Structure formats: C-alpha cells, structure tokens
Automatic annotation (TrEMBL):
EC number: 1.2.1.11
Entry keyword set: NADP, Oxidoreductase
Gene Ontology BP annotations: methionine biosynthetic process; threonine biosynthetic process
Active-site feature positions: 157 (acyl-thioester intermediate), 250 (proton acceptor)
Residue ranges of every copy of the Semialdehyde dehydrogenase NAD-binding domain listed in the record: 5-137
GO molecular function, one term: NAD binding
Alphabetized InterPro entries for the sequence: ASADH-related, Asp_semi-ald_DH_pep-lack, NAD(P)-bd_dom_sf, Semialdehyde_DH_NAD-bd, Semialdhyde_DH_dimer_dom
Descriptive protein name: Aspartate-semialdehyde dehydrogenase
Entries under SMART domains matching the protein: Semialdhyde_dh
Length: 360
C-alpha cells in the first residue's frame, strides 16, 4: 500500500518530536515534511533540534536529513503532503489562522492544539468515544470553501484519565463528577533538566486546565446538530489540576454519583469490555483493550502502567463505594501518547479508514 505523505507543523517541539517517533515505520503514514518557525527553516531536522531531542528513543534516521520548511509558507508546505499534524507553538489566534489557512489549501489538519476545540464545526475527538462528530466536517468544509481540507482536534490530555471511564458507564447516567488530576511535567513540554524547581515539589495550579477538564468532556458527549457540535448538559464536573514531579502520565482521583447506581462488578465489567470503532476497525495505533481495571490496591502507578498498550490505553483501579458520592476510583493515562500525539495519530487513522483523508 502506498503510504500517505505527512507533514508535521511545529515538528521541533516536544509534541512534534513525539509525532516523529510514533510515525517511524507507521504502516499507513510517512513523514515527508517538517515545518517549524522561521529560525529553524533551512536547517536539517537534526540541526534544528540539536540537543533538544526529548524522546527516550533515538531520532529516526528517516527524518534527520529532512530540511525544515518555514511553517508560515503554507502553500509550499501543503504542496508536499497529503495531510498535516499540527503542534505549533503560537498564540491562540495565530494557531486558529494558520490551521484554517492549511485547511483552505485542501490539506486536512489533525491538531494537537487547543485553539479550535470550541470552534462549533470542528470535531474534537476521542476515537473510541465520539467518532460520529466527524459528520461536522461536511459543514466545516462548506464554511472554509474547500472540498478536501478540514480541521479535527484532540481534547486536553488531562481528561483522558477519567472521561473514557465515565463514558463506558453512560448507561448508568453519571450525574456528578469530582476529579483531581495529578499531571506530569511533560504536559508543560518540560523534563526535570529544564525545570529543576519541580524536583521534590507539587504546584497546585496549571493555567486554564481546570476549565478544560470540566468543559471538554461535555463537548465530547455533545450532539451534532445542523453541522454544529452542541455540548451536553451534564454530568456536572468539578476539578482541581495539580502539577506533580513525574516525567509522564496523568493520574486522576475521581468521585462519581449516578442516576442509576451500578454494582462494582457491573462497573468493572463495563470498563474491561468497552470497545469503540478503533478496536472494531483494528486501526494500527488502537489499543486492543482500551480500558484496563487493576485489582491490586496499589495500581495503577505512573512508572509501571503509563505505557500500557504502548501508552494508548487507560488504566483504572481502586474502585470503592464512597460515603458522600456513589463511588471513587483512580485513573491513569499517558499524557504525551494517548493524551497528545498518539491520540492525534489514532484520529488520523480513523479519518483515513472512513475516507476523510486520501492521497492528493
């Protein structure tokens, strides 16, 4: 099978690097273009990244000698690719503008950025939860005046550790959710060498994160009406988001009450057996088992469990009845794989499987 040609916008940053490493030897996609800021343009990818390679696997040989293009030269970049992943580091308004500019050239954009998460006709997708939101692409293409280009985004990394768990229990009507997330430093694009003040420290604030954690699940559970995505009315979600001294992996402590309270056995069965479209289609990056429940009292743990299903699965544990809410449990997901680049790669695989992304 001839592979689709992929470009990575913002390819030198941490998420861009994660895209590069995940797409190495991908069965459907091949990275042919890396675009970044004007200061990186004209250098080889290896030169542009220099000593800032943050992945724990070596830089793939296939990208080292690619000459980095200027991300602002939209037409030139677009002509070389079938679609792009976006991980650009710009202001929100700049990101909105540049992603729309790429889409208008007929180039699908799968974005890791937050800028378009609330644009009414831009699907924000977790492929196992709301693939039907891709229907909004038709209306978006009409608005942008293109028959081929569009933008699809992935949600915030913090919600992946608990939203899938709640989604698998939708039949029981979750109505109130309290979640505290304990978020890894890679979520800020950093490691301990760049951020020594995080060693032996907890910071009880991550800008903008609590609003995203409370509102984005409601958009994912919303409905497409007249080409616009209308967010769901509930459940009521309240969160606190805390930065902790962990390299990768976001943990959530979750309390939940239901309209129709399930038994513990029903909850664990629903979690372990949950499947979505990616599992049915056997997409290359899809975890075989999306959600795994651990019976051990001291699991899931970031160090032991964040790489479950190559970082694409969600780990749950410590399910107990609660004295205030119905139940409480712990969730864990890999924030830069499922929560960022890996989640976006899975979206692109779904888009290809459903005919939204094709060769130019």
């Amino acid at each position: 099978m001839e592979k689709l040609r992929v470009g990575i916008l913002g390819g030198t940053g941490m998420v861009g690097q994660r895209f590069i490493s995940l797409l190495d030897n991908h069965p459907w996609f091949e990275v042919v273009t890396v675009a970044a800021s004007p200061r990186s343009a004209g250098k080889t990818y290896e030169e542009a990244v220099g000593d800032r390679w943050k992945m724990n696997t070596p830089m793939p040989e296939s990208v080292k000698k690619l000459v980095v293009k200027n991300v602002n030269e939209v037409t030139e970049v677009s002509e070389s690719v079938d679609f792009v992943f976006s991980a650009v580091d710009m202001t929100k308004d700049e990101i909105k503008a540049i992603e729309e500019a790429y889409a208008k050239t007929g180039t699908p954009v799968v974005s890791n950025n937050s800028a378009h998460r609330w644009t009414p006709d831009v699907p924000m997708v977790v492929p196992e939860i709301n693939p039907e939101h891709l229907e909004a692409i038709k209306a978006q293409r009409e608005r942008l005046g293109t028959d081929r280009g569009f933008i699809v985004v992935k949600p915030n990394c913090s919600i992946q550790s608990y939203t899938p768990a709640l989604h698998a229990l939708k039949e029981y009507g979750p109505k109130v959710v309290v979640a505290t997330t304990y978020q890894a430093i890679s979520g800020a694009g950093k490691n301990f060498a760049d951020w020594p003040e995080m060693v032996d420290n907890v910071i009880p604030y991550i800008g903008g994160e609590e609003e995203k954690s409370e509102q984005e699940p409601l958009r994912i559970w919303g409905k497409v009406e007249d080409g616009q995505i209308k967010k769901a009315d509930g459940p009521l979600i309240t969160t606190q988001c805390i930065r902790v001294p962990v390299t990768d992996g976001h943990t959530a402590a979750v309390f939940v009450s239901f309209d129709k309270k399930p038994s513990k056995e029903e909850m664990i069965k629903a979690w372990n057996e949950y499947k979505g479209v990616p599992q049915e289609l056997n997409l290359p990056s899809a975890p075989k088992q999306f959600i795994k429940y651990f019976e051990e009292e001291n699991r899931p743990q970031t160090k032991l469990d964040r790489d479950y299903e190559n970082g694409m699965g969600v780990c749950l544990g410590r399910l107990r009845e609660d004295s205030v809410y119905d139940y409480k449990f712990i969730g864990l997901s890999h924030n830069t794989v499922r929560g960022a680049a890996g989640g976006a790669v899975l979206i692109a695989e779904l888009l290809k499987a459903q005919g939204y992304i094709t060769k130019k």
